[in-house]
Design a protein that fits this description.
mainly alpha; three-stranded antiparallel sheet; 16 helices; about 50% helix; elongated
Length: about 375
Protein backbone atom coordinates (compact mmCIF):
# COMPACT_ATOMS: atom_id res chain seq x y z
CA UNK A 1 0.00 0.00 0.00
CA UNK A 2 1.17 3.53 -0.75
CA UNK A 3 0.94 6.43 1.69
CA UNK A 4 0.95 10.23 1.53
CA UNK A 5 3.40 12.34 3.50
CA UNK A 6 2.84 16.02 4.17
CA UNK A 7 5.76 18.26 5.20
CA UNK A 8 5.40 21.85 6.38
CA UNK A 9 7.72 24.50 5.00
CA UNK A 10 9.05 27.40 7.04
CA UNK A 11 6.63 29.77 5.32
CA UNK A 12 3.66 27.70 6.45
CA UNK A 13 2.92 26.03 3.09
CA UNK A 14 2.98 22.27 2.64
CA UNK A 15 4.70 19.90 0.26
CA UNK A 16 3.47 16.39 -0.40
CA UNK A 17 5.00 13.10 -1.45
CA UNK A 18 3.66 9.63 -2.17
CA UNK A 19 5.66 6.83 -0.56
CA UNK A 20 5.57 3.11 -1.37
CA UNK A 21 7.77 0.05 -1.42
CA UNK A 22 8.55 -0.94 -4.99
CA UNK A 23 7.19 -4.41 -5.66
CA UNK A 24 10.06 -5.28 -8.03
CA UNK A 25 13.10 -4.09 -6.05
CA UNK A 26 11.72 -3.96 -2.52
CA UNK A 27 13.14 -0.43 -2.11
CA UNK A 28 11.27 2.42 -0.44
CA UNK A 29 10.30 4.90 -3.16
CA UNK A 30 8.83 8.40 -3.08
CA UNK A 31 7.40 10.81 -5.64
CA UNK A 32 6.83 14.55 -4.95
CA UNK A 33 3.49 16.12 -5.91
CA UNK A 34 2.07 19.61 -5.58
CA UNK A 35 -1.28 19.20 -3.84
CA UNK A 36 -3.33 16.79 -1.74
CA UNK A 37 -5.53 15.97 -4.76
CA UNK A 38 -2.51 15.14 -6.91
CA UNK A 39 -1.17 13.03 -4.05
CA UNK A 40 -4.40 11.03 -3.78
CA UNK A 41 -4.55 10.51 -7.55
CA UNK A 42 -0.92 9.40 -7.73
CA UNK A 43 -1.40 7.08 -4.76
CA UNK A 44 -4.26 5.37 -6.59
CA UNK A 45 -2.07 5.19 -9.70
CA UNK A 46 0.71 3.47 -7.79
CA UNK A 47 -1.61 0.98 -6.11
CA UNK A 48 -3.51 0.15 -9.32
CA UNK A 49 -0.14 -0.69 -10.94
CA UNK A 50 0.92 -3.14 -8.27
CA UNK A 51 3.32 -0.70 -6.51
CA UNK A 52 5.69 -1.12 -9.47
CA UNK A 53 7.97 1.86 -10.19
CA UNK A 54 8.53 0.56 -13.72
CA UNK A 55 4.82 0.39 -14.46
CA UNK A 56 4.23 3.87 -13.02
CA UNK A 57 7.16 5.27 -14.99
CA UNK A 58 5.80 3.79 -18.21
CA UNK A 59 2.42 5.34 -17.49
CA UNK A 60 3.98 8.76 -16.87
CA UNK A 61 5.84 8.51 -20.17
CA UNK A 62 2.56 7.77 -21.92
CA UNK A 63 0.93 10.77 -20.30
CA UNK A 64 3.49 13.04 -21.95
CA UNK A 65 2.64 11.86 -25.48
CA UNK A 66 0.71 14.20 -27.78
CA UNK A 67 -2.75 13.89 -29.31
CA UNK A 68 -6.14 13.59 -27.62
CA UNK A 69 -6.70 11.45 -24.57
CA UNK A 70 -8.74 8.31 -24.94
CA UNK A 71 -11.76 9.97 -23.31
CA UNK A 72 -11.46 12.91 -25.72
CA UNK A 73 -11.12 10.56 -28.69
CA UNK A 74 -14.24 8.66 -27.57
CA UNK A 75 -16.18 11.92 -27.28
CA UNK A 76 -15.13 12.92 -30.80
CA UNK A 77 -16.01 9.47 -32.12
CA UNK A 78 -19.59 9.50 -30.83
CA UNK A 79 -20.16 13.01 -32.18
CA UNK A 80 -19.57 11.57 -35.66
CA UNK A 81 -22.23 8.87 -35.30
CA UNK A 82 -24.94 9.92 -37.73
CA UNK A 83 -27.35 7.06 -36.98
CA UNK A 84 -27.44 7.47 -33.20
CA UNK A 85 -30.35 9.44 -31.77
CA UNK A 86 -30.08 11.95 -28.91
CA UNK A 87 -30.95 9.35 -26.28
CA UNK A 88 -28.27 6.96 -27.54
CA UNK A 89 -25.67 9.74 -27.68
CA UNK A 90 -26.58 10.67 -24.12
CA UNK A 91 -25.96 7.09 -22.99
CA UNK A 92 -22.59 7.07 -24.74
CA UNK A 93 -21.54 10.31 -23.02
CA UNK A 94 -22.65 8.98 -19.66
CA UNK A 95 -20.65 5.80 -20.24
CA UNK A 96 -17.51 7.86 -20.94
CA UNK A 97 -18.01 9.82 -17.71
CA UNK A 98 -18.70 6.72 -15.64
CA UNK A 99 -16.24 4.20 -17.08
CA UNK A 100 -13.51 6.02 -19.00
CA UNK A 101 -12.72 9.02 -16.82
CA UNK A 102 -10.06 7.19 -14.81
CA UNK A 103 -6.58 5.96 -15.64
CA UNK A 104 -7.41 4.56 -19.08
CA UNK A 105 -9.42 7.57 -20.22
CA UNK A 106 -6.62 9.98 -19.27
CA UNK A 107 -4.03 8.22 -21.41
CA UNK A 108 -3.27 9.67 -24.85
CA UNK A 109 -5.17 7.52 -27.31
CA UNK A 110 -1.87 6.88 -29.11
CA UNK A 111 -0.43 5.36 -25.94
CA UNK A 112 -3.17 2.84 -25.09
CA UNK A 113 -1.91 -0.72 -25.31
CA UNK A 114 -3.43 -4.19 -25.11
CA UNK A 115 -2.42 -4.49 -21.44
CA UNK A 116 -4.17 -1.20 -20.58
CA UNK A 117 -7.45 -2.52 -21.90
CA UNK A 118 -7.05 -5.82 -20.06
CA UNK A 119 -6.50 -3.86 -16.84
CA UNK A 120 -9.60 -1.75 -17.56
CA UNK A 121 -11.67 -4.92 -18.03
CA UNK A 122 -10.48 -6.23 -14.68
CA UNK A 123 -11.38 -2.93 -13.04
CA UNK A 124 -14.89 -3.13 -14.50
CA UNK A 125 -15.24 -6.72 -13.27
CA UNK A 126 -14.16 -5.57 -9.80
CA UNK A 127 -16.98 -3.01 -9.90
CA UNK A 128 -19.45 -5.83 -10.55
CA UNK A 129 -20.15 -4.95 -14.19
CA UNK A 130 -21.71 -7.80 -16.18
CA UNK A 131 -19.86 -9.46 -19.04
CA UNK A 132 -22.50 -8.24 -21.50
CA UNK A 133 -22.10 -4.61 -20.39
CA UNK A 134 -18.30 -4.87 -20.55
CA UNK A 135 -18.62 -6.22 -24.09
CA UNK A 136 -20.86 -3.32 -25.07
CA UNK A 137 -18.41 -0.71 -23.74
CA UNK A 138 -15.51 -2.60 -25.31
CA UNK A 139 -17.33 -2.35 -28.63
CA UNK A 140 -17.52 1.44 -28.30
CA UNK A 141 -13.85 1.50 -27.32
CA UNK A 142 -12.87 -0.59 -30.34
CA UNK A 143 -14.89 1.63 -32.68
CA UNK A 144 -13.10 4.65 -31.21
CA UNK A 145 -9.77 3.03 -32.01
CA UNK A 146 -10.85 2.51 -35.62
CA UNK A 147 -11.77 6.19 -35.81
CA UNK A 148 -8.38 7.07 -34.29
CA UNK A 149 -6.64 5.09 -37.02
CA UNK A 150 -8.52 7.01 -39.71
CA UNK A 151 -7.64 10.27 -37.93
CA UNK A 152 -3.99 9.12 -37.84
CA UNK A 153 -3.87 9.45 -34.07
CA UNK A 154 -2.53 5.89 -33.87
CA UNK A 155 -1.65 3.03 -36.21
CA UNK A 156 -3.48 0.00 -34.82
CA UNK A 157 -6.45 -1.16 -32.78
CA UNK A 158 -5.35 -2.63 -29.43
CA UNK A 159 -8.88 -3.87 -28.75
CA UNK A 160 -8.50 -6.70 -31.22
CA UNK A 161 -7.77 -10.17 -29.88
CA UNK A 162 -8.96 -9.20 -26.40
CA UNK A 163 -10.48 -12.16 -24.56
CA UNK A 164 -13.70 -10.72 -23.16
CA UNK A 165 -15.26 -12.27 -20.05
CA UNK A 166 -17.73 -15.09 -20.60
CA UNK A 167 -21.35 -14.22 -19.95
CA UNK A 168 -22.65 -17.14 -17.96
CA UNK A 169 -25.61 -15.22 -16.60
CA UNK A 170 -29.05 -15.11 -18.17
CA UNK A 171 -29.21 -11.84 -20.07
CA UNK A 172 -32.75 -11.02 -19.09
CA UNK A 173 -34.99 -12.43 -16.42
CA UNK A 174 -38.37 -12.99 -18.05
CA UNK A 175 -41.58 -13.70 -16.18
CA UNK A 176 -44.27 -15.35 -18.31
CA UNK A 177 -47.86 -15.13 -17.14
CA UNK A 178 -50.72 -17.37 -18.20
CA UNK A 179 -53.81 -15.94 -19.88
CA UNK A 180 -55.86 -16.00 -16.66
CA UNK A 181 -52.99 -14.44 -14.69
CA UNK A 182 -52.74 -11.66 -17.27
CA UNK A 183 -56.44 -10.89 -16.87
CA UNK A 184 -56.03 -10.81 -13.09
CA UNK A 185 -53.28 -8.20 -13.48
CA UNK A 186 -55.53 -6.16 -15.80
CA UNK A 187 -58.34 -6.31 -13.27
CA UNK A 188 -56.05 -5.17 -10.45
CA UNK A 189 -55.16 -1.93 -12.24
CA UNK A 190 -56.99 1.35 -11.60
CA UNK A 191 -59.96 1.58 -13.96
CA UNK A 192 -58.38 4.30 -16.13
CA UNK A 193 -55.39 2.03 -16.88
CA UNK A 194 -57.12 -1.31 -17.45
CA UNK A 195 -57.56 -0.79 -21.19
CA UNK A 196 -53.92 0.24 -21.48
CA UNK A 197 -52.62 -2.86 -19.65
CA UNK A 198 -54.93 -5.14 -21.64
CA UNK A 199 -53.54 -3.52 -24.79
CA UNK A 200 -49.96 -4.29 -23.68
CA UNK A 201 -50.81 -7.94 -23.01
CA UNK A 202 -52.81 -8.16 -26.24
CA UNK A 203 -50.21 -6.68 -28.59
CA UNK A 204 -46.77 -7.19 -27.03
CA UNK A 205 -46.02 -3.58 -27.84
CA UNK A 206 -43.15 -1.76 -26.12
CA UNK A 207 -44.20 0.72 -23.43
CA UNK A 208 -42.70 3.69 -25.30
CA UNK A 209 -44.51 2.65 -28.50
CA UNK A 210 -47.93 2.12 -26.91
CA UNK A 211 -47.89 5.42 -25.01
CA UNK A 212 -47.05 7.34 -28.22
CA UNK A 213 -50.01 6.03 -30.24
CA UNK A 214 -52.48 8.54 -31.69
CA UNK A 215 -56.04 7.99 -32.81
CA UNK A 216 -55.03 8.05 -36.48
CA UNK A 217 -52.76 5.03 -35.91
CA UNK A 218 -55.78 2.77 -35.36
CA UNK A 219 -57.92 1.15 -38.07
CA UNK A 220 -60.57 -0.46 -35.92
CA UNK A 221 -63.07 -1.05 -38.74
CA UNK A 222 -60.56 -2.93 -40.86
CA UNK A 223 -60.64 -6.72 -41.21
CA UNK A 224 -58.75 -7.55 -39.12
CA UNK A 225 -58.48 -4.40 -36.99
CA UNK A 226 -54.89 -3.14 -36.81
CA UNK A 227 -52.76 -0.46 -35.21
CA UNK A 228 -49.75 1.05 -36.96
CA UNK A 229 -46.52 1.70 -35.00
CA UNK A 230 -44.74 4.76 -36.41
CA UNK A 231 -43.21 6.48 -33.39
CA UNK A 232 -42.06 6.05 -29.79
CA UNK A 233 -41.08 8.18 -26.84
CA UNK A 234 -37.36 9.05 -26.56
CA UNK A 235 -35.14 11.19 -24.33
CA UNK A 236 -32.84 13.95 -25.58
CA UNK A 237 -29.51 15.21 -24.21
CA UNK A 238 -31.34 17.17 -21.48
CA UNK A 239 -33.21 14.02 -20.41
CA UNK A 240 -36.45 15.48 -21.75
CA UNK A 241 -39.02 13.35 -23.53
CA UNK A 242 -39.75 13.74 -27.22
CA UNK A 243 -41.49 11.62 -29.86
CA UNK A 244 -39.14 10.08 -32.40
CA UNK A 245 -38.92 6.99 -34.61
CA UNK A 246 -39.33 3.50 -33.11
CA UNK A 247 -36.36 1.46 -31.93
CA UNK A 248 -35.40 -0.01 -35.33
CA UNK A 249 -36.57 0.07 -38.94
CA UNK A 250 -38.54 -3.14 -38.46
CA UNK A 251 -40.22 -1.64 -35.42
CA UNK A 252 -42.36 0.30 -37.90
CA UNK A 253 -45.10 -2.27 -38.28
CA UNK A 254 -48.80 -3.05 -38.19
CA UNK A 255 -50.14 -5.14 -35.32
CA UNK A 256 -53.48 -6.92 -35.60
CA UNK A 257 -55.90 -6.56 -32.69
CA UNK A 258 -58.15 -9.10 -30.99
CA UNK A 259 -61.85 -8.24 -30.88
CA UNK A 260 -61.76 -8.07 -27.07
CA UNK A 261 -58.97 -5.47 -27.24
CA UNK A 262 -60.86 -3.49 -29.91
CA UNK A 263 -64.02 -3.33 -27.80
CA UNK A 264 -62.04 -2.11 -24.79
CA UNK A 265 -60.00 0.61 -26.50
CA UNK A 266 -62.63 1.86 -28.97
CA UNK A 267 -63.95 4.63 -26.64
CA UNK A 268 -60.37 5.80 -25.98
CA UNK A 269 -59.56 6.00 -29.69
CA UNK A 270 -62.71 8.01 -30.40
CA UNK A 271 -62.03 10.36 -27.50
CA UNK A 272 -58.44 10.96 -28.65
CA UNK A 273 -59.40 11.96 -32.18
CA UNK A 274 -56.92 11.68 -35.04
CA UNK A 275 -54.15 13.71 -33.43
CA UNK A 276 -54.54 13.01 -29.71
CA UNK A 277 -52.76 10.39 -27.62
CA UNK A 278 -54.96 7.36 -26.99
CA UNK A 279 -53.48 6.24 -23.68
CA UNK A 280 -53.17 9.12 -21.20
CA UNK A 281 -53.20 9.84 -17.47
CA UNK A 282 -56.22 11.12 -15.60
CA UNK A 283 -54.93 14.63 -16.37
CA UNK A 284 -54.74 13.94 -20.09
CA UNK A 285 -50.95 13.80 -20.26
CA UNK A 286 -48.69 11.02 -21.57
CA UNK A 287 -48.23 7.94 -19.40
CA UNK A 288 -44.66 7.75 -18.10
CA UNK A 289 -43.00 4.54 -16.99
CA UNK A 290 -41.71 6.10 -13.76
CA UNK A 291 -45.18 7.12 -12.54
CA UNK A 292 -47.15 4.20 -13.97
CA UNK A 293 -44.83 1.76 -12.20
CA UNK A 294 -46.42 2.79 -8.89
CA UNK A 295 -49.86 1.64 -10.05
CA UNK A 296 -48.38 -1.53 -11.54
CA UNK A 297 -46.66 -2.38 -8.25
CA UNK A 298 -49.82 -1.77 -6.20
CA UNK A 299 -51.79 -4.01 -8.55
CA UNK A 300 -49.29 -6.85 -8.12
CA UNK A 301 -49.32 -6.34 -4.35
CA UNK A 302 -53.10 -6.73 -4.29
CA UNK A 303 -52.76 -10.04 -6.13
CA UNK A 304 -50.17 -11.34 -3.68
CA UNK A 305 -47.19 -11.44 -5.99
CA UNK A 306 -44.08 -11.83 -3.82
CA UNK A 307 -41.78 -8.85 -3.61
CA UNK A 308 -38.14 -9.11 -4.50
CA UNK A 309 -36.03 -8.72 -7.59
CA UNK A 310 -36.86 -11.24 -10.31
CA UNK A 311 -39.85 -12.70 -8.43
CA UNK A 312 -42.67 -10.64 -9.89
CA UNK A 313 -43.70 -9.49 -13.35
CA UNK A 314 -42.35 -6.20 -14.63
CA UNK A 315 -44.27 -3.96 -17.02
CA UNK A 316 -42.05 -5.23 -19.84
CA UNK A 317 -43.08 -8.79 -19.00
CA UNK A 318 -46.45 -8.02 -20.62
CA UNK A 319 -44.48 -8.12 -23.91
CA UNK A 320 -42.86 -11.44 -23.03
CA UNK A 321 -46.19 -12.86 -21.90
CA UNK A 322 -47.79 -11.85 -25.20
CA UNK A 323 -45.01 -13.64 -27.08
CA UNK A 324 -45.47 -16.82 -25.04
CA UNK A 325 -49.25 -16.82 -25.54
CA UNK A 326 -48.89 -16.31 -29.30
CA UNK A 327 -46.48 -19.23 -29.61
CA UNK A 328 -48.63 -21.43 -27.39
CA UNK A 329 -51.59 -20.88 -29.71
CA UNK A 330 -49.72 -21.72 -32.90
CA UNK A 331 -48.08 -18.54 -34.18
CA UNK A 332 -44.87 -19.22 -36.11
CA UNK A 333 -41.64 -17.71 -34.81
CA UNK A 334 -41.11 -15.61 -37.96
CA UNK A 335 -44.65 -14.19 -37.63
CA UNK A 336 -44.00 -13.36 -33.99
CA UNK A 337 -40.74 -11.64 -34.90
CA UNK A 338 -42.56 -9.28 -37.29
CA UNK A 339 -45.34 -8.69 -34.77
CA UNK A 340 -42.90 -7.70 -32.02
CA UNK A 341 -40.83 -5.52 -34.36
CA UNK A 342 -37.54 -7.32 -33.81
CA UNK A 343 -34.81 -6.21 -36.19
CA UNK A 344 -33.61 -9.80 -36.56
CA UNK A 345 -35.44 -13.10 -36.18
CA UNK A 346 -32.38 -14.27 -34.25
CA UNK A 347 -33.50 -12.08 -31.35
CA UNK A 348 -36.91 -13.76 -31.32
CA UNK A 349 -35.44 -17.26 -31.54
CA UNK A 350 -32.90 -16.61 -28.79
CA UNK A 351 -35.56 -15.32 -26.40
CA UNK A 352 -38.57 -17.49 -27.09
CA UNK A 353 -37.62 -20.72 -28.89
CA UNK A 354 -37.69 -22.61 -25.58
CA UNK A 355 -41.43 -21.89 -25.47
CA UNK A 356 -42.03 -24.04 -28.56
CA UNK A 357 -42.21 -27.67 -27.30
CA UNK A 358 -44.07 -28.74 -30.46
CA UNK A 359 -41.02 -27.76 -32.49
CA UNK A 360 -38.91 -30.17 -30.43
CA UNK A 361 -41.40 -33.01 -30.99
CA UNK A 362 -41.51 -32.29 -34.72
CA UNK A 363 -37.71 -32.24 -34.75
CA UNK A 364 -37.59 -35.66 -33.12
CA UNK A 365 -40.13 -37.05 -35.61
CA UNK A 366 -38.24 -35.65 -38.61
CA UNK A 367 -34.97 -36.99 -37.23
CA UNK A 368 -36.50 -40.46 -36.83
CA UNK A 369 -37.78 -40.46 -40.41
CA UNK A 370 -34.38 -39.34 -41.69
CA UNK A 371 -32.65 -42.13 -39.79
CA UNK A 372 -35.00 -44.70 -41.31
CA UNK A 373 -33.41 -43.95 -44.67
CA UNK A 374 -29.93 -44.88 -43.39
CA UNK A 375 -28.58 -48.45 -43.36
CA UNK A 376 -29.12 -50.30 -40.12
CA UNK A 377 -26.12 -50.29 -37.82
CA UNK A 378 -25.61 -53.00 -35.25
CA UNK A 379 -24.37 -51.79 -31.88
CA UNK A 380 -22.06 -54.17 -30.06
Amino acid sequence: MASIRERKRADGTSVFAVLWRDSETGKQTSYPVGSPEEARNFKRLVESNGNSLTAVGTLLEKANMGGPTLAEAMARHIEMLTRAGPDQLRRYRRAIDNHFSGRLGKLPVAAVEHEDIVMWIREMQAKGMSAKTIANHHGTLSATMETSIRKKWRGDNPCKWIDLPDDNAIEEKMNFLTGPESLRVVGAMPERYRAFVLFLFGTGMRFGEATALKGSDFQLRADPPVVRVERAWKRNDDNRFYIGPPKTKKSRRSVSLADSVVRTIWPLVEKAGPHGLVFVTSYGGPIRHSTFHEFWAKGLDSLGYPKGRGNRPRIHDARHTHASLMLAHGMQINELSRRLGHESITTTVDRYSHLMPDAHFRGAEISEKALEMLPAVEVA
